[in-house]
Write a structure and sequence with these properties.
Blueprint: E1 5-10, H1 15-30, E2 35-39, H2 42-52, E3 61-63, H3 69-76, E4 79-84, H4 89-92, H5 94-102, E5 106-109, H6 114-131, E6 134-136, H7 144-157, E7 160-172, H8 185-196, H9 200-208, E8 234-237, H10 242-257, E9 263-270, H11 273-289, H12 293-301, H13 303-306, H14 318-322, E10 324-335, E11 352-361, H15 366-381, E12 391-393, H16 395-399, H17 404-410, E13 414-422
Parallel strand pairs: 1-2, 1-4, 2-3, 4-5, 5-6, 6-12, 7-9
Antiparallel strand pairs: 7-10, 8-9, 10-11, 11-13
Helix pairs in contact: 1-15, 3-5, 5-6, 6-9, 8-12
């Protein structure tokens, strides 16, 4: 790989891709790393270089199309690691994965599509190991804060965790004159297709893990509409990839390191009860519509209507994105004493609770781009701290023993211990 570019950004002309290029210009320059950009249209790629990387000497422009296998191989052969921003990944992701394995190129992406991620692990984990390459999905806001937040919590717990409940909260400090969508159309499109095929996930998970985990007690039950002591507002189960990815990470920790896996639940929290009620009603309508092709077509045709303006065919308002903030609060329950074997059972009730938090600003595209670039850089620099010699991994499995959390902290993502209480 000595003569390759350090990083190639595929899908560089898309909304997310442009953010990745913008941040790569200074993040790679500071580390004396070379990057190139790739996509279907040279004119559009040249325009991206002119807009975001004009002060960088010689940013290679590579033509590649997901429908052209040879062009993908030529692209991936140019890179030590590929950052894939070309979604929905359900339709466009697999050919890129195959090309990376064929050319022995590491891979990261920004998807939050559960079906795609599990299917890629099923199909290509062994091939990636044989090729000696790491393939890590969900390296953006989906699902770096939640998965690495769990790893951070497990590191700080000093005992044995039984369960972690995660409360996600997003809010805006925008003034009333700042309007516009928060999500671009491709993000909405990916979410609609992912929700519409949610029934595929359980069957794929059974194929991926034919042997079930031992039953751990006390069993964590999912709470429906509720108020928690650790966050202000109303919370409900959140239909995102965060829990799915976290459970795969926990399974990896059990299989690889014989570590007791934490039971996980993820909730979305909204402070105002009226806003919460409107969100629940809107979410139920969307879930119903995603169950049929007709409903999905309606959602895709009228994103602003069905998302209450959060998604649109128009590009998001950059000022709105800058004024958006997030926090993930982790409520971990367990024991002060760690038993010798992961399968050993505690005879007493949990006697310790730890609260941690991951928080930051502009989570959508700005922070996602920084997270995926840092993930790529970590793979290039710290394979000695990563498991196996490659494979299809979750962020927590891939980066749990690397410096990625420390690097995120340097880029204004706060990881903090809130409290630790022993009974």
């Amino acid at each position: 790989m000595a003569d390759r570019l350090d990083i190639v950004i595929f899908g560089a002309t898309g909304y997310t891709g442009k953010y990745v290029v913008k941040n790569a210009t200074h993040m790679c320059k500071d580390r004396k790393m070379k990057f190139g950009i790739a996509g279907r249209r040279k004119e559009a790629l040249d325009a991206v270089v002119k807009e975001f990387a004009s002060d960088i000497e010689n940013v290679p422009v590579i033509l590649a199309d997901v429908k052209d296998e040879e062009s993908l191989k030529k692209m991936t052969k140019r890179a030590k690691i590929l950052i894939n921003c070309c979604g929905p990944f359900r339709f466009y992701g697999e050919p890129v994965i195959k090309a990376c394995i064929a050319s022995h190129t590491h891979y990261v992406d920004v998807t939050g599509e559960e079906q795609f991620m599990i299917e890629m692990q099923l199909k290509y984990n062994e091939a990636a190991k044989e090729a000696g390459v790491y393939m890590v999905s969900a390296c953006g806001f989906d699902c770096i804060p939640s998965d690495l937040g769990i790893i951070f919590t497990q590191q700080k717990f000093e005992g044995e965790i039984n369960s972690i409940e995660i409360y996600m909260n997003m809010w805006s400090s925008a003034t009333t004159n700042k309007k516009g969508p928060l999500f671009n159309y491709a993000t909405w499109e990916s979410a609609v297709h992912s929700l519409g095929h949610a029934e595929e996930v359980s069957e794929l998970r059974k194929k991926l893990y034919p042997t079930k985990l031992p039953e751990f007690t006390p069993k964590l039950t999912r709470k429906m509409m509720h108020q928690s002591d650790v966050v202000k507002g109303w919370s409900t189960p959140f239909a995102s990839a965060d829990r799915s990815v976290a459970l795969r990470t926990q399974r990896f920790l059990y299989d690889e390191y014989k570590q007791r896996p934490a039971q996980i639940q993820v909730y979305l929290t909204i402070k105002s009860f009226l806003d919460f009620l409107m969100m629940v009603i809107g979410s139920m309508l969307i879930l119903i519509l995603t169950r049929s092709s007709y409903g999905r077509n309606l959602l895709l045709k009228y994103p602003a209507l069905f998302s209450a303006g959060f998604a649109s065919h128009e590009s998001p308002n950059p000022e709105m994105l800058k004024s958006t903030h997030f926090s993930f609060t982790f409520e971990a329950s367990g024991w002060t004493e760690k038993l010798a074997e992961a399968t050993d059972k505690h005879t007493d009730s949990p006697n310790k609770k730890v609260i941690t938090r991951v928080s930051g600003d502009s989570p959508g595209y700005e922070l996602t781009s920084i997270m995926v670039i840092l993930s790529a850089i970590t793979i290039l620099n710290e394979t000695d701290k990563m498991p196996y010699n490659g494979g299809v991994l979750t962020p927590g499995a891939a980066f749990g023993r690397t410096s990625l959390i420390e690097q995120l902290i340097k880029h204004n993502v706060k990881f903090e211990m809130i409290s630790s209480i022993e009974k």
